[in-house]
């Protein structure tokens, strides 16, 4: 029996950021060969969910919602005519709707800020909340046009602990393969202050930390292959063990990346994930789209 295609979900609200998310999502749906589902949700408008209609007896809320959805659908069709596109309008909180949709979708895509976001915020509250609570991977579309359009042919995955990074690595490998891009695996390490000698010398503590960091990268990539979740081709993988803060290393790598993939720990006893300082840093400041994938 053929597996049911899981649609890619994208949230749209008419903002420029959400339209950029639609552009990115339809391109991703085409690369994966899956349908695209465009969802508009608004808790502050009394509007019952329905398929967009064009009758004459419609409230201003109906007209506005239909316009938002029609604009997004038309834009998606124009960019990728071969991709199957569906849409829906729901009178609920956007976070609630997108998190619920993520349970049956392959991935949720959102813009960095929505129509209601404050210009002073680097990342909208809806985007951050969806990234923290959706069971599926969430991609926040941000960064420059070249990064969003795949101009660098590089996917970066940040690796913290090898034993927990399997899902993020597998997601990154598939993304790189779909783009014909190289995969750069980044692991940052820091030498504890008490281990750093006053006078640098060959063979000091830094060497052992560098070796452990490189071993962590190797193990993370091997684990993905061993678990059958990814196929890693050595020539297409660049491994970088970087001394310093993880957030600095990943933000630097994002400058020449088409996608940055990071893992996140699930909250114990709670729905959703625990987004740490590194997750927040890349979601707010990365120069390319960011995918958040729950640790295995």
TrEMBL record:
InterPro entries: Rossmann-like_a/b/a_fold (IPR014729), Universal_stress_UspA (IPR006015), UspA (IPR006016). Transmembrane segments: none annotated. Residues 8-142, 152-293 form the UspA domain. It holds the Pfam family Usp. Belongs to the universal stress protein A family. This is Universal stress protein. The lineage of its organism: Bacteria, Bacillati, Actinomycetota, Actinomycetes, Kitasatosporales.
């Amino acid at each position: 029996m053929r597996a049911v295609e899981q649609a890619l979900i994208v949230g749209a609200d008419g903002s420029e950021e959400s339209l950029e998310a639609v552009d990115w999502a339809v391109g991703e749906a085409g690369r994966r060969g899956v349908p695209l589902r465009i969802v508009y949700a608004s808790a502050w408008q009394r509007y019952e969910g329905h398929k967009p209609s064009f009758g004459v007896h419609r409230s201003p809320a109906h007209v506005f919602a239909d316009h938002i959805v029609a604009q997004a659908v038309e834009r998606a069709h124009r960019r990728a005519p071969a991709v199957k596109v569906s849409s829906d309008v729901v009178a609920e909180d956007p976070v609630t709707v997108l998190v619920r949709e993520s349970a049956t979708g392959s991935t949720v895509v959102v813009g960095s800020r929505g129509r209601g976001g404050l210009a002073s915020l680097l990342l909208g509250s809806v985007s951050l909340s969806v990234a923290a609570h959706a069971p599926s991977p969430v991609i926040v579309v941000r960064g420059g046009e070249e990064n969003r359009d795949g101009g660098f042919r590089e996917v970066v995955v940040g690796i913290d602990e090898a034993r927990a990074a399997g899902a993020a690595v597998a997601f990154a490998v598939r993304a790189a393969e779909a783009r014909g891009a190289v995969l750069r695996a980044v692991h940052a390490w820091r030498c504890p202050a008490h281990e750093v000698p006053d006078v640098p010398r060959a063979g000091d503590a830094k060497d052992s930390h560098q070796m452990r960091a490189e071993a962590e990268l190797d193990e993370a990539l091997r684990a993905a292959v061993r678990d059958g979740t990814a196929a890693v081709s050595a020539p297409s993988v660049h491994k970088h063990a970087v001394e310093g803060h993880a957030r600095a290393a990943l933000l630097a790598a994002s400058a020449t990346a088409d996608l940055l993939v990071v893992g996140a720990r699930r909250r114990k006893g709670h729905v959703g994930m625990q987004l740490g300082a590194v997750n927040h840093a890349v979601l707010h400041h990365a120069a390319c789209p960011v995918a958040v994938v729950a640790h295995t």
